[in-house]
Every structure is written in C-alpha cells, then in structure tokens.
Amino acid sequence: MCFSGCDRPEFYVRETPTARKPHRCDECGETIAPGDVYERVRAKWDGHVSTFDTCARCWFVRQAIESYELLVEECDPFEAMPPHGNLDEIVCDHHEHYGLGVETLREVPRW
Q1: Tens digit of pLDDT for each residue in 41-88?
Q2: Beta bridge pairs of residue 40
Q3: Domain segments of the chain as ranges
Q4: Structural contact between residues 105 and 28, judged by C-beta atoms closer than 8 angstroms
Q5: Is the pTM for the entire model greater than 0.85?
Q6: Which residues contact 109 (CB under 8 A, 6 or more apart)?
C-alpha cells in the first residue's frame, strides 16, 4: 500500500525517551505517564517543525505497519511509515490488509 502521497520532510528525527512529565499521545489521545517509554518524532515539512508523541501501544502498531510495508510491500523506508496523527483511521480502514483486528489499539498492552 505504501504511503507515497506524503510529502518528504526536510528532516525527521525519531527518539524513544522516557517521559519525565505527562504527555498526550497524538494517535489515541491517552496520557503518556511519567516513567513510560514512548516515541517522539520531530520533523519539518514546508518550513514548519512538528513534534509527535506516540504512546507505547500506538508505537507498537505503527512499527507493525511500517515493518509490513517494508518487508511485504517493499516500500522505500520513508513511504513505509504511516502518517502521524491518523493511526486509528489507517487501522480501521486497512485492518484486513495488515491482519490487524479493529480493536488492535485497545488489545496491545501498555508497558
């Protein structure tokens, strides 16, 4: 399926920090509690820098989709990454494609 309709950023930095304060997941809206490991992405598109915080559950689902796109669909690494902020739509619209259940975001445990 490759996410080829997305503009490539001028830069894209992915980190996996441990939260020191509460954050809100940009995918599911749940709280990332202090002590939780999460994904933080900083990127620049069209001159605008954006930051996306993703909880461990949503990060796990993003990684599963990205791996599928790389290994099965043979997408280029950037086109394999699902766009930030609409993971729930991708899972609901394409769950059969990825072999994911519609309830996937609720089924993956927090850690």
Answers
A1: 999 988 999 999 999 989 988 888 888 888 888 888 878 888 888 888
A2: 15, 53
A3: 11-107
A4: yes
A5: no
A6: 57
